[in-house]
Structures are given as C-alpha cells and as structure tokens.
Amino acid sequence: MENFEIRFGGSGGQGLQLSARLLADALIREGRKVARSQSYEPTSRGGLSRADLVVAAKRIDYPLITALDVLVLLDQLPVAVSMPLLRPGALVIADARRAGEIPEGDHDLHLLPLSESALALGNERATNIVALGVLAGLGEVCEHDTLETVIRDGVPPRFLDLNLRAFAKGVELGEAGGPGR
Hints:
By secondary structure, the protein is α/β, with parallel strands linked by helices. It has six helices and six strands, in the order βαβββαββαααα.
C-alpha cells in the first residue's frame, strides 16, 4: 500500500502508542510521510485507547484518519467506534481472545491468537509486537526488515529478546495468512 490509514485499537496498557511509533519510524525510514495521532482515556490501564497513522508516499493533505484501510484490534473496546470507519475491503487484524466479536462486513478479517502467542512467549504485554509482526508477515504495510530494525532500536534492551521473539511469531502468523472469517 502506498497511501493508507491505520488504527491500533485496544485498552490502556497494551502498548498501542509504542506500536504506532515503531511503525511510523519504520515507514519514515522507507521514505513515507506519516502523521500520527492518539487518543486514550485518563486511566493508565483498561480504558479505551487508540493510535492512528495516516501514511502517504508524497504529501499528507489531512493528518487525521477519515477512512481506515487497516485496523488492528487488541481488545473489544474500540470495535464499536472503529468499525464504521473502515473502507470497503479493509484489512482487520483482531486478537481472537480479547477482540473476538467482530461484526460481519466488507472487510478482510484475520482473527488470530495474538495475546495467546504473547502469553506462550512469557508476557502478554508483547501482544502489540506480535500484531506488528502479523502486519509484516501479511506484507501489507511495511518491510519486515525495517520493522525489525526499529524494534531493535526502539525497545528497552531488557525487553529486546522478548520483543524480537514476539515479532517473529507475528510474522509467522501473518505469513500463514491466519484464519479469515
């Protein structure tokens, strides 16, 4: 995709802002223009949270999302507010355990074990990085190597191994295509 809009939606504490920052950094390294916005409730854990990116090859005319091409759902909370914003045929990646109730519609749904995969690696907080790996594995948004590089550069050293394993697991899930609906 050359020009697109993406939302990471979930609840506070799931690393959505980190995911958006890492993806934005990767896209900028690939020569894209990126506008990033965010919204979250004042609670540090559990409230509705979202991070949005508007991506363009040349110039961004309007920095806020208007119609989503990609939606990554890590929790059920943002489903109701995000689904009406989908373009026809949009890619939807959802965590099967925490965001499994996705309405039918004209979208390409990949309901995947994102949080279960992170738990199997030892820490559910890596779910956001598993989701980035899925995006890379599906080949829809950004190059695998670029995302891996920004993860290496952008996460604290004590969490690097976990995040690299989470990213690799996500790439594996994405390359397998995941079970669409």
